[in-house]
Amino acid sequence: MNEIETLKEELEELNNGEERLINLAENAYKDNEYIKAKFYIDRLLKKHPESSKFTYYKNMLVEIEPKVQNELKKIEKKRKDSIRLANINKLGIWKIGYYVNNFDEPTGERYVETYVNGTFSNSATTNSDLRVCFIIDKNSIRIQLYEYAGNHPIKGEGFLKFTIKDSNDKIHTVKSYNNDSGDNTIEEEYFDEVKAILLNGGKIKFVALADKYGSPSEYKFEIVNADYLENALIKISANAK
Predict the structure, then answer these.
(1) pLDDT in tens, 211-228
(2) Is residue 47 classed exposed, middle or buried when 0-12, 13-18 and 19+ CB atoms within 10 A define those classes?
(3) Cα–Cα distance between 217 and 204 in angstroms, integer?
(4) What is the CB-side half-sphere exposure of residue 145 using CA atoms within 13 A?
(5) Distances (CA, A) of 112 to 62, 138, 195, 228
(6) So what's the pLDDT on residue 224?
(7) What pLDDT shows up at residue 9?
(8) What is d(CA 4, CA 10) in angstroms, rounded to the nearest whole number?
(9) Closest CA to 18 of 70, 56, 67, 68
(10) Which of 93 and 2 is assigned the larger pLDDT?
(11) Deepest in the core among 2, 108, 186, 236, taking most CB within 10 A?
């Protein structure tokens, strides 16, 4: 054996010796550093399959796996939080507005909104222009539907059935209620579901059906890119009195 090969063996033993790997794994485990412990145990099992403690550490791997996954989730959350903080001023299509009282004075309560275009069809028209306004605050999601892209939303239609395709192509069926004032509010039981769809961002497609009077109207529209809603919601929460 030449000098180079001898040095290689000594270096291998220094880095991957059984006793050293066991000590590193145990210290990492005691310090609750489960990803690091898994790394050293994996190396121990690979480099020293003949070890008398092989079974012990193989079982330990199974024990710490849930803790490893939990640690990885925390790291990923920290990474995402860092990215979000760096991009907190990016709002994409979303704008921040504020509610006013009877004197048109700001109440301190804010909301997030955006407008998109679409089409609607019924017994009198086909694929006519539609203007849609999303209004989102901490308690509600309203989807106002303006036929012929006008200034007055549909009113008094009662329950509307929405079919939504999220950015992962998953289909959701939810309901809204359209009152006599024109507010078209997602029903409370679907609030969290729709909010999650919007927060996930990307392209979201909507089809809504109103059929109170036996002559159905269908409304089709989409949000091309819903990214950065979370930033907007954080901002209205931070600015709330």
Answers:
(1) 988 889 999 999 999 999
(2) middle
(3) 20
(4) 30
(5) 46, 10, 12, 11
(6) 98
(7) 52
(8) 10
(9) 56
(10) 93
(11) 186
Please tell me the predicted confidence (pLDDT) of residue 202. Answer: 97
Query: Do residues 197 and 204 touch, judged by C-beta distance below 8 A?
Result: yes
Q: Of 48, 47, 45, nearest to 61 (Cα)?
A: 45
Both tokens of residue 27? 């210290």
- Whole-prediction pTM: 0.69
Distance, CA of 230 to CA of 101 (rounded, Å): 26
Residue with tokens 């033993």: 13
**Beta bridge pairs of residue 221:** 118, 206
Report the Cα 151 to chain-centroid distance in Å.
Answer: 32
Alpha-carbon separation of residue 100 from 94, 152, 182 (angstroms): 19, 19, 18
d(CA 1, CA 27): 35
Q: Which two tokens stand for residue 55?
A: 């079974």
99, 139, 234, 238 from 106: Cα distances, Å: 6, 18, 19, 16
User: Distance of CA 25 to CAs 4, 16, 20, 92, 166, Å?
Assistant: 29, 12, 9, 46, 44
Residue type, 116: V
The residue type at 227: D
Mean pLDDT, residues 10-16: 53
Structure tokens at 16: 């991957």
DSSP string, 180-209: TTS-EEE-GGGHHHHHHHHHT-S-EEEEEE
* Amino acid found at 214: G
| Closest listed residue to residue 219, CA positions, set 116, 141, 137, 93 | 116
pLDDT (mean) for 30-46: 93
What pLDDT is recorded for position 106?
86
- Residues in the chain, how many? 241
